[in-house]
Amino acid sequence: MAALAWLLIPLLAAVGAGLWGSWVNRTRKARSDGPELDGYARFRAAMEKLRTDA
């Protein structure tokens, strides 16, 4: 009986790892890069303004 328990532990760990892996790699809604790119454009404009003022 103890041998069966030692065999079930890795089996349950493998099943748990498979479930966790499938949950982590699930497809999520695609996000647009709009806000990030807008912020970067503002940053570049500010840096360009500083360069031309100096």
Secondary-structure blueprint:
Layout: H1 2-24, H2 34-53
Describe the structure.
With 54 residues, the chain is mainly α. Helices cover 80% and strands 0% of the residues. It is built from two helices and no strands. It is rod-shaped, with a radius of gyration of 26 Å. The mean pLDDT is 88.
Strand content: under 5%
pLDDT average, as an integer? 88
Class from helix and strand fractions: mainly alpha
Q: Roughly how much helix do the residues carry, as a percent range?
A: over 70%
Through-space gap between termini: 80 Å
Structure in a nutshell:
The protein is mainly α and about 55 residues long.
List the main descriptive attributes of the protein structure presented here.
single chain; 54 residues; mainly alpha
